[in-house]
């Protein structure tokens, strides 16, 4: 279409894309622009009467008998003076090389645009129609139809003469004709006919519906959708006709084709033109309305509607009212609609205007979304179609979106969109940051600033940090934690924090942030001091990460006070950097912490801190008595006398008992159990552990006058001491609780022991017999002696080289072999031979022998 600078404005009274409802939220389907350039000049002096469209150019006829060839931008390329009066119809073949023209004075011309005139005839009546064969450029297709009251078919003969033949007559003036493939459709006063050119047969007659409408004022509009589908618009009626092949059995005297009306419906207004759009229809409607001023009927703006047809109804998809020039003066017959199949372009022709309608592309869709302030949808549409859009850029749409969000006060969403829209463009980022600063919304954009790729200048980040430092310590601390330290000048921010701490020296948030800044600046000592002061959990991570063990030698107590468990684990994991002696020395004034450290050390390794085991006795006794006894049991380095002294001083009975027994004073230990603990079960358990007969005797003597103790002994000593010894010593008449049950248990235990012994004996006998049989079978097996066998003493072959000589050898079951003469004689004490290699003294696997003689 025409370039932007040459387009005429379509606003106000000349706007052609004005909708009936300006504020409608429904997006239009088509966009419009006025065909200008040469067309403007033509219509200033003349009036358009008809037009036809080819994919390469346009042909415009006027009331003054001129035909203009135009390019698609409306520039005049050729002009033909056909007649002094109105041009009624123009027809082009598919090649665009031949044109047919008819005029109101009866003239009909068919000529080649590049080869000269082909046919010129003047009829005695106005000629409304002409249509050349679509393949007119071919020699065998030199045909065209024209006529007034009669429809003539002109064919070129072999002598280059034109031969006319009448195809139809007698039904009034013919006002429209369309030729597609081998089918011709025309409309007269009675209806629409379709003719098969090849068969020279008329296929059908489609009568017009409203016979009250004057056909000259409300002409028929014909349009071929494809080679077999005709669209008819007449009055307010639309019919879609499909040409179909008749079955061979049905032909008889009928044409080989027939027409089926697949869709039929009425419209609200009178039809001035019709065209297909995919499976929809584009209809140009003539509208009349009642004037508010005069209250009389007048001509309104024509409408261009997109309709979805159904078999017996339709659905309006879109409807646009078009403001064409001097529309108030026009009638239904003054409008027409032409279209270009390949590009989906629709031309609305009126006497003083030509408007082009085209399907809206993605750029137009984005324009509409932006106009409706639907920036999010516009941005999404641009991203999806970024390869096809030509007018818009994603970044420009995004910036407009950001501007809109800032205007309506949605600063958080505007800041969030910056991250996606601005991308790696540092200049745009810096511009937006300054803009957010001007409106006092730096906090909103802070968390979306670039941090890794395409970082901004340091002053931008410092500006944001200063903003937070003045009003939001928590937000400032969050940014320092999240932002890498290389984004800003660390020294500048450190100084700013120090200045604020002068006003509020106990502010934990600022102190923690200052420690992080010191860490970024590799001033770990200062950071560590702050973390310890704050008792911050990251102190141990800082020490490990930056190997600050040399800096904490004098801070051991602080670390233990902060988190003794983590501190001890750290000290023990790094003994090479902080020795055990150093830790113990530092904790000498804090024995409770010293105990925690030494206890963990002992748990890890019983021997590493052995020189502190003596000290640990008092520490366990003071701070952790439950672990004292396990310590005494596991330690092999603590002095028992010192431990006994401490336990006796503190009256720790269990620990004293253990130490006495370990030092060999079992009787004192047992006495202490009986007298201090008064626990017969513990005493019995102790006696079992020591397994000393004298200790059992002492236990019996101590318990003999104590019935509860006697009951306990009767229940437990049956497997260690003969119960008779205890029973004989019980005084006659002493009442012993549960005596019967205890005696029954003793008998049961005795029976159990007898059964166990008998069972063990049976198992032992069975195993011995089985092994004896196995040994016998083994010793009964033969032993292989061959040429490779040697005497273990002389190391010569065991078999003689001369098999005829006699020999004698000794073979043991251990596979060792000896010559008889080489093997030593048995001692006088025993006549049994033993293998001198396997067993010289004891009877073993090689003791039995085999003697071989020959």
Automatic annotation (TrEMBL):
The keyword Zinc-finger applies. GO terms for molecular function: identical protein binding; microtubule binding; zinc ion binding. Pfam families: Beta-prop_Vps41, TPR_Vps41, zf-RING_Vps41. GO terms for cellular component: AP-3 adaptor complex; clathrin complex; clathrin-coated vesicle; cytosol; early endosome membrane; Golgi apparatus; late endosome membrane; lysosomal HOPS complex. It is found in: Cytoplasm, Cytosol; Early endosome membrane; Endosome membrane; Late endosome membrane. CHCR repeats lie at residues 568-712. Residues 791-839 form the RING-type domain. The keyword S-adenosyl-L-methionine does not apply. Keywords: Autophagy, Cytoplasm, Cytoplasmic vesicle, Endosome, Golgi apparatus, Lysosome, Membrane, Metal-binding, Protein transport, Transport, Zinc, Zinc-finger. Signal peptide: none annotated. Its main location: cytoplasm. Residues 14-26 have a biased composition (Acidic residues). It comes from the Eukaryota. One of its GO terms (biological process) is cellular response to starvation. Plays a role in vesicle-mediated protein trafficking to lysosomal compartments including the endocytic membrane transport pathways. Belongs to the VPS41 family. This is Vacuolar protein sorting-associated protein 41 homolog. It comes from Salvator merianae.
């Amino acid at each position: 279409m025409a370039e932007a600078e040459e387009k005429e404005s379509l606003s106000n009274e000349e706007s052609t894309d004005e909708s009936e409802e300006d504020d409608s939220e429904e997006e239009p389907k088509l966009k419009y622009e006025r065909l200008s350039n040469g067309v403007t000049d033509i219509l200033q002096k003349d009036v358009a009467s008809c037009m036809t469209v080819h994919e390469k150019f346009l042909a415009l006829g006027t009331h003054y008998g001129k035909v203009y060839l135009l390019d698609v931008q409306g520039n005049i390329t050729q002009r033909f003076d056909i007649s002094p009066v109105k041009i009624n119809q123009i027809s082009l073949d598919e090649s665009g090389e031949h044109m047919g023209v008819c005029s109101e004075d009866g003239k009909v011309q068919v000529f080649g645009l590049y080869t000269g005139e082909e046919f010129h005839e003047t009829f005695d009546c106005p000629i409304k129609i002409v249509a050349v064969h679509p393949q007119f450029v071919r020699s065998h297709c030199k045909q065209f139809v024209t006529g007034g009251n009669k429809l003539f078919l002109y064919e070129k003969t072999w002598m280059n003469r034109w031969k006319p033949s009448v195809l139809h007559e007698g039904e009034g003036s013919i006002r429209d004709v369309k030729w597609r493939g081998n089918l011709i459709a025309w409309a007269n006063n009675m209806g629409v006919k379709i003719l098969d050119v090849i068969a020279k047969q008329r296929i059908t007659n489609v009568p017009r519906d409203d016979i009250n409408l004057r056909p000259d004022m409300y002409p028929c509009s014909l349009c071929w959708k494809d080679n077999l589908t005709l669209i008819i618009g007449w009055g307010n009626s639309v019919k879609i006709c499909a040409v179909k092949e008749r079955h061979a059995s049905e032909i008889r005297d009928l044409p080989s084709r027939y027409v089926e009306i697949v869709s039929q419906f009425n419209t609200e207004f009178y039809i001035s033109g019709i065209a297909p759009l995919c499976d929809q229809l584009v209809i140009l409607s003539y509208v009349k309305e009642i004037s508010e001023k005069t209250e009389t009927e007048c001509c309104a703006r024509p409408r261009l509607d997109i309709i979805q047809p159904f078999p017996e109804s339709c659905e309006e998809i879109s409807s646009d009212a078009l403001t064409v020039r001097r529309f108030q003066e026009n009638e239904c017959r003054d409008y027409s609609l032409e279209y270009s199949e390949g590009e989906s372009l629709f031309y609305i022709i009126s006497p003083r205007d030509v408007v082009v309608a085209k399907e809206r592309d993605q750029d137009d869709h984005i324009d509409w979304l932006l106009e409706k302030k639907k920036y999010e949808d516009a941005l999404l549409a641009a991203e999806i179609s970024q390869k096809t859009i030509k007018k818009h850029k994603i970044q420009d749409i995004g910036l407009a979106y950001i501007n809109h969000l800032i205007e309506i006060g949605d600063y958080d969403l505007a800041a969030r969109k910056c991250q996606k829209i601005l991308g790696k463009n540092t200049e745009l980022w810096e511009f937006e940051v300054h803009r957010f600063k001007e409106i006092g919304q730096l906090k909103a954009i802070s968390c979306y600033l670039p941090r890794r790729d395409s970082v901004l200048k340091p002053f931008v980040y410092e500006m944001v940090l200063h903003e937070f430092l003045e009003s939001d310590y928590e937000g400032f601390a969050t940014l320092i934690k999240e932002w890498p330290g290389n984004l800003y000048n660390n020294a500048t921010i450190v100084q700013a924090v120090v200045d604020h701490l002068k006003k509020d020296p106990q502010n934990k948030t600022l102190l923690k942030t200052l420690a992080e800044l010191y860490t970024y600046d590799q001033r770990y000592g200062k950071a560590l001091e702050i973390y310890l002061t704050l008792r911050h959990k990251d102190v141990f991570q800082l020490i490990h990460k930056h190997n600050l063990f040399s800096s904490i030698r004098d801070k051991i107590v602080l670390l233990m006070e902060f988190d003794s468990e983590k501190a001890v684990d750290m000290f023990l994991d790094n003994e090479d950097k902080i020795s055990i002696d150093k830790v113990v020395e530092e904790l000498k004034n804090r024995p409770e912490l010293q105990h925690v450290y030494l206890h963990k050390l002992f748990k890890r390794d019983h021997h590493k801190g052995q020189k502190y085991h003596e000290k640990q006795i008092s520490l366990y006794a003071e701070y952790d008595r439950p672990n004292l006894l396990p310590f005494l049991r596991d330690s092999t380095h603590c002095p028992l006398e010192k431990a006994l002294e401490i336990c006796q001083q503190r009256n720790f009975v269990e620990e004293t008992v253990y130490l006495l027994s370990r030092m060999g004073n079992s009787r004192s230990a047992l006495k202490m159990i009986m007298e201090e603990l008064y626990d017969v079960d513990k005493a019995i358990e102790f006696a079992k552990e020591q397994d000393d007969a004298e200790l059992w005797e002492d236990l019996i003597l101590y318990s003999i006058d104590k019935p509860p103790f006697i009951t306990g002994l009767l229940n437990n000593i049956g497997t260690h001491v003969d119960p008779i010894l205890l029973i004989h010593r019980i005084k006659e008449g002493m009442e012993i609780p549960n005596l019967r049950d205890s005696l029954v248990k003793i008998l049961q235990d005795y029976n159990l022991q007898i059964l166990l012994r008998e069972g063990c004996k049976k198992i032992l006998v069975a195993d011995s017999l089985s092994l004896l049989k196995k040994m016998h079978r083994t010793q009964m097996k033969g032993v292989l002696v061959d040429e490779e066998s040697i005497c273990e003493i002389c190391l010569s072959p065991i078999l003689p080289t001369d098999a005829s000589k006699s020999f004698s050898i000794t073979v043991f079951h251990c596979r060792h072999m000896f010559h008889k003469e080489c093997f030593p004689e048995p001692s006088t004490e025993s006549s049994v031979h033993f293998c001198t290699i396997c067993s010289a003294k004891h009877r073993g696997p090689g003791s039995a022998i085999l003697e071989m003689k020959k």
